[in-house]
Structure formats: structure tokens, C-alpha cells
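#structure-requests
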Amino acid sequence: MTKYLTKFPNGNYFIEANYFKAELHFYFEEKDAALVCYRVVADASRGSYTEESTIKAASILFDNEDWENAFDYYQKLYPLAENKSTKLLAAVGRLRCSYNLKDWDNVISAASDIIENEKSNDEQRRESHYKMAKAYYAKENNIRALGLFEILSKEVVSYEGAESKYRVAEINFNMGKDSIAENLIYEFAQMNSPQAYWLAKSFILLADIYYKNGDNFSAKHTLQTVLNNYKNETDGIKDEASEKLTAILDEEQAAQVEEDGLDLKINLINEDSEDNELFEEGEDKFDLPKPAEIEEETDREDPINNSETNNE
């Protein structure tokens, strides 16, 4: 194949030669070399090997985590597909690539195609609902996201189900529906979910609800429970709980300092008022003597001077 392509770079069997060369490389797990040839066939005018080459090119790119180029080939495959199974494969590829790219509009579009495809199975539809919900959540369309999360939250054994249960409570809290959010968290706690991360996130959210409603004692107790019982030290849960607990304690300390300062100021004002009253009220009030009285008093108290004056 290589000799033919070298000798006849624009030969009549150029596409066929590239396709079979790609297949040989793929068979011997020379994926990068295979990709080059598959892309030549996939990018050429539509022919007998276009669909298969597009599938293989997209798959290799996906495995290489080249999400953008993989998405392009899955996108190209969808209208090329001659049956619903291949369309499903293309839609799943589009969904996963666009999700990794955070391309939320294409996530929603691909998820819809999967859900509507009669060949999709329960796991694929579940993945589609989950990623569609996350897309709407990222786009801040909480009403659409809430409806999808509610569907997924009926079970909390899976990671997606547990996160969905948390998101339903979180969205309700953000919409000001504190009592609904609180009850959802209590319900989650009773469902024996193995997903400790999302259960802990729910308890942190419960502490936020307590704090918002002025119940600092319950908020602190809930956060301390997370810190005491959660095992993972590296996934951010303990850091979040510790930060929130510290913030509450700092706020309370600042409030106490302000209150103590206010009490001291009031006490000082009261003491100043009492001191002023000592000089303004009661029978012990005194007046300064007049000048004439001072002279008269001096004459009476200095007998020696008075005696000398009389003798003269």
C-alpha cells in the first residue's frame, strides 16, 4: 500500500489504498499511523469506506482525548449514518466530547438525539438525562435542570443519582424554598446512599439553611459532624466544612467583641453621669467666699498683726 501511494499519489485507488493501509495499522495497534489514513478517507468525497473511516477516526481521536477533533468527526458521522445504531454511536460520541468541552448547547442537542433513538438503552438514556441536566444547570436554566434532576434522584446508589438528589435540594434552596430543601436532605440521609461525597455536600447545605435562618448552633453542630465523620481528606469536603465553620465562629466572635465594647461604653457613660451628680446635688454643695469676706476673716485670724497696730 505504501509503495502504491508513493508511486501513484493521485491514483485511481488512492482512497482504497489509504483505507486498507489504515486497517493494517489499526490491526497492529499503530493507531497514530492509522488515524492519518482514516482521516484521508473520511475527509474525501463520500464513498464505500467513508462511514467506517469516520467512525475509526473519531474513535482514535476520542481515545487520545482530542475532544474537539473527535467531536467534528462524530458530528460528520451523524448524517452519514445509514442506520439508527450508527446514529446512536455518533450521538453518544458527540455527547461525551461536547460534555468534556463544556459545550452545553451541543450536549443538550446530542442528549436529545440519544433519548429519541429507539436503539438507546437505559444506561445511555440515563447518561443523556444526567448530562443534559448538568448542561441546563451550567446555563443557569434551573427550571429545566430541576425537572431532569428530579427524574434521576429517585435512586441514590449511583453517582449521578446521588448528585441529582443534592442538586434538587440545592436548587430549591437557591429559589428560597428552604423547608423543601431541608426535607429533601433529611430524606437523602435516610436512603442509605453509598455516595458519601454528595451526602456530605447535602449536610453542608443543611448547615447553610440553618445559618440562613439564624440557627447558628445547629449549623455549627452539623459542620462539626461532617468534620468528625467524613473520611476523605483530599476531595475538598472537609476544607469547605472547615471554612464555613470558621466563618460562623469568626462572625460570632466579632459580634461578641462589638457587644462587649458597647456595654463598656454604656457603663462609662453611666459612671460619668454619676460623678457629675456628686457636685450638683445634695447638701454638701459649697460656694467660693467673696473677697470682702476673705479680708475680714484674715483680720480675725492674725492676732499678732492686730496687736502691733493697736500699740502704735
